[in-house]
Amino acid sequence: MLRPGTLSLADLHAFWRRARPVELDPAAHPGISAAADTVAQIVAEGRRVYGISTGFGSLARESIPREQVAELQRRLVRSHQAGVGDPLPERVVRLILLLKLGSLARGHSGVRLETVDRLLALLNADALPVIPAQGSVGASGDLAPLAALAAPLMGEGELLLRGRRLPAFEALAELGLEPLELAAKEGLALLNGSQVSCALALDGLFRGLDVFAAAIVGGAMSTDAALGSDTPFDARIHAIRGQPGQIAVAGWLRELLAGSAIRGSHLECDRVQDPYSLRCQPQVMGAAWDLLGQAAAMLSREANAVSDNPLVFPDSGEILSGGNFHAEPVAMAADIIAIALAETVSLAERRIALLTDASFSNLPPFLVAEPGLNSGFMIAQVTAAALASEVKLRAHPASIDSLPTSANQEDHVSMATHGARRLGPLSQDAGRVLAVELLSAAQGLDLRAPLTTSPRLDEAHALIRKQVPMLREDRPLTPDIEAVWALVEGGRFFELLWQSETADPFVAR
């Protein structure tokens, strides 16, 4: 049941992980209708209100006659379909539809219940607008991509109907639906808003959580395989610093390593301290965890927000122009997600390097028998280094950029949409770095036999070995990396760490 304004991060995560039917709470209907009635009254009175009886952006001074109000909305949607590039992924489009529905159903946008119901019908029929990925600067709303969402309501543009890309009018006909004629304010309400950038950022956050969970599990496995100490994870160390993320990460590492026979075998060894990539995991990963939590809170609020313009307040009959469409919170959230993942990957790549370095790990060079004849994980570490470098490049902040648009009416923009969109390829690269670490750590644990790791890490090891056998002599490693990356992307390490496929780990901790 969609209750506008109450979507939790767990709700959003579950919907992102697996599409499911959506039902709008009937309690939202009166508010939607009251806002639509307010707009209709303004049109009937001939009042001059931005976007209803005027042009848009820098053309706001141009008045529109009452008889052309509907035509104004239709032309607005057509003119704003200027996006380019590959279509957005299906699960991102589903999130966009859900967020747009939730925003319009708050009752401050002035759209009719009929229009909200049509969006709901498309979502539940798995009829997804084909939305080009590029063309929004994340201010005045995600205009070009949201125009591609709005056009199919009028029978224009394209829909992906259960996997088939069709002209919208054909897809609507298959569903037994007629094109809508948009009423006053409706085109503007559909186009204005931060739903595209927010959905992309949520996609980046959720993919980032899969990567982060894999990094915690991989970091624990690497620590055990490298004969690292668990003393740096002692709760007393972290309590006296007081950083919540650091405390949480140290706790997860302690839980994962508890009961390891490998750890018990070297309690009296002469190694005084481990390198930072092992010893400082709570400090580095904890800081990243706090950033991800901050981004999650910002995006959770934005997912429930009314972010179009102007806004309708039926209780007073007013329509107020503001700037809720400006996606600066989303832009900054996307940037801190990117930074958190870049640091996560930076640490993971260093742990791979330690494992493959026989002078530190006391394992065979490059984690393979007969080194020299075999190169083992030598080039897998090079691949991880290359990907880690790409992640760092993509982590450069997008929110610090701005290019004025619309004849300088929109003179500061957020760049949220591409800032959020870049999280997709960034998380893919990050996930593959973690795949290399998980493979390396699993190999290191195999080489410690007959000593065994902890019960929790044995679960992770078995998950990997179910897909990829131990490396006994050289073979192409690309299929192995891709197989373990699929486990990361599929949330298997998320589930292992937080014991649920779709949990809200920020609440769970």
Alpha-carbon distance between the two ends: 26 Å
Described by strand count, sense and barrel closure, the largest sheet is: 3 strands, antiparallel
CATH architecture of the largest domain: Up-down Bundle
Oligomer classification: single chain
What does this structure look like?
There is one protein chain. With 509 residues, this protein is mainly alpha-helical. It has two domains: 9-193, Fumarase C, Chain B, domain 1; 200-306 and 320-508, Fumarase/aspartase (Central domain) (Fumarase C, Chain A, domain 2, Up-down Bundle). The protein contains 23 helices and seven strands. The chain has a three-stranded antiparallel sheet. A two-stranded antiparallel ribbon has the order 1-3. It has a two-stranded antiparallel ribbon with strand order 6-7. A hairpin with a 2-residue loop joins strand 4 and strand 5 (164-167). Helix 4 (90-104) crosses helix 9 (195-225) and helix 9 (195-225) runs antiparallel to helix 14. The radius of gyration is 26 Å and the shape is elongated. The relative contact order is 0.13. The mean pLDDT is 93.
